[in-house]
Amino acid sequence: MNGYDFDNTILYGNSTRRFSFYCTLRFPYLIFMIPVIVLALILRALHIISVNKYLHMLEWFIALVPNVEKYVVKFWDKNMKHIKPWYLENRRDDDIVISASPSFIVEEACRRLGVACIATNLDTRARLHGKHVYGKEKVSYYKSVYGDKPLATYYSDSKTDVPMFKLAGKGYFVKGDKVTLLYENSERV
After folding, report:
1. What gap in Å lies between CA 70 and CA 106, rounded to an integer?
2. Is this structure's pTM higher than 0.90?
3. Strands (E), the chain
4. In this structure, are residues 125 and 105 in contact, taking their beta carbons and an 8 Å threshold?
5. What's the confidence (pLDDT) of residue 29?
6. How far is CA 95 from CA 22, 42, 109, 141, 151, in A?
């Protein structure tokens, strides 16, 4: 079984950011969320808030989108083309995506790809249930679903995924379309 981060790994760009722009074009009043985003950036930069709180503040716009499930489907109708070709060529039925993005956004893409998904449990009213599936939390969430089932490889664009790289037999760093072996048997290569 192979594991993948989603944003900037198998998808060009960030799905939550893309979805927020998509929604803002349809609901221009979402532009008023910009001060919240700026505040979140400042508070995080000053280490006043945790990564979990920071990510949650960036997701608050979701509560202002009516019938958000309908727009997620329409969003992916237009955005599946941004899945990276190298992933599509290597996709297997037992792949698993492990993402910090909201589950209701990422699960639709994973359903279309025919792969499993573990993502942040954020509901469509922007209520967070648990922690973001981010950094070392990815390992906890993976183990809560799969136990000690081995992960052959893990691919990510972020060094915050080192815990997942170390969990997998091989950890690959993804930058654009370039995929580089970074970890093997929990050791840096």
Report:
1. 14
2. yes
3. 2-4, 96-102, 116-120, 153-156, 170-175, 178-184, 187-188
4. no
5. 97
6. 27, 36, 13, 16, 10
